Model the fold of this input.
Amino acid sequence: MTEFATKLLSQTHALRSKLGAVLVKVVKGFWWQPVALLAAASYWFYVANGIPTPNARTVEKYGVYGDSFGQLTSLFTALGFGGLIITLLLQQRQIRMQEDAARNAREKEEKGRYEEIFFRLLEVYRQTLSEVRVGDACGREVLRQAMDRIDTAIVEERVNDLPRDVQGRRDAGVLNDTDRQRIDYLHFRNFKIVGAEIHPQARLIDTLEVLLEHVVNGASDSRLIKTYKDLLWAQFTFIECRYFFFVALSRTNRARLRDLLAKADFFDRISRSQTHWLHREMYKEYWGLDIEQRELPPSIPMSQGKIKRAMRAHRAAGGEPKSAYTVVGVRKSNKG
Done:
């Protein structure tokens, strides 16, 4: 019964929507002007037939006969004024339609120009990235090597994490002045390491800034901007994302880059595997932007509790449950 009622309600809403659409078309149509003229003509014919024709051909009789048409004269005077109003309304509708057509054409032209410039700038960015060269490395390999050096250096200097005692007081919210100074030292050493090892590629970063400026401010349609933001970051690898994050973190002269990255929703697309928690805290403290950790979706659509229960059941049945999987190609290469 509930399903039938739901279906009936849905059909009722659909019928109501169709009737509403038909009513709008009827109201906006050109049907009522001819109907109004036909009604006026019918009324004139009815009134004219009801006026008796004078029997005697005298001035007085014909004067009385002419005065009998006074109400018709008033009617047609009113109709003339109504026709003027109708003409103005039709002209207004036509002007509005022309304005709508011009606006649609302008929006279409702006969209086409925005897209054309976007893809040109994206191609310039790709070309600039391919021309980046340090020694024998080129392109993204240059960026990857820079980040590898950073990761190695902060581990070797043991500035990639807080000391255990400071971490404990930090978690408990009871940091003292000495603890904060020790944290400041970690920030200082990380800034020094990142700044020295990142080797900023000025042409590449300047090109990115121009591209981001166009994406963020090149169109008035927010829906169009959002679409091309998503498209832009879909073209970037995690290597580029990490590299630009390090540049924005360590370079004080890149305020424009930090502003554009924030406006382009760059930090909403960085996963926790792409940034270190310490660097996120540094960015928040020194550049005023809280970079939330974006949780990655689970690799399979099963909860951890369900997986654990399934593995226990498999073990109870005499099997040896496995949690990892090695792809066939790797297994074959290992055997070889």
Residues 123-287 form one domain.
